[in-house]
Amino acid sequence: MSKISNVLVVDDEIQIRRFLRAGFELEGFAIHEAKDAAEALRAATLQTVDLIILDLTLPDLDGAEVLERLRAWSSVPVIVLSVRSNEAEKVRLLELGADDYVVKPFGMAELLARARAALRRKTPGANNESVVTIDRLRIDFAARAVFVDDERLLLTPKEHQLLQILGKHAGNVVTHHQLLKDIWGQPHVSDVHYLRIFVRKLRRKIEEDPNRPRILLTELGVGYRLAVPGGNTVKSR
Q1: If both were cysteines, with which of 2, 5, 74, 108 could 50 make a disulfide (CB 3.0 to 4.6 Å apart)?
Q2: C-alpha–C-alpha distance, residues 211 and 91, integer Å
């Protein structure tokens, strides 16, 4: 990573902040810390921040409200950390504008992979990358073509659209609601069975073992994501 990315870690537990600082600094990131919502919002306003790691349980304000306030004026990537694994809560946070959601306890390697994916999507020009390669899958956006092991796949228009959307957000979860709205339209945002059918078909075409997917991963009750491009597969929880 040529440019040093500035990461703001927001957590009231000093041990967590120290753990995250050590992990990110080892990978060449610059770290800023905030122990509560007031410090976090001040830092995000006054400093150059490329990524925010936001704990939901803060002493002065719920993390969800911090996220809402940030999204009123900023598109900085935000990865939420929480002990809450409730699926409805994950969906709510993602739809409020979180880029990703990681449940405690977590591995540093997983968090770093998701951080890099979020930063790639927000880096100028990153969303215009012409090709994304994930394991044996290659998506060529400019040519509107998808390859597995260099063999071009024959996909239906909706299968192709699904892979295009997930490819543009590779490494990060896209909710059922967003996928259904973008592909089938607003009247079908509750028809999750549409997605299950198409994901099942796609896995037969892109996975070595569709029953143990490594490329197209499920976030139970929340949505789907493609594995992190150019890195090790991040296993779905």
Answers
A1: 5
A2: 25
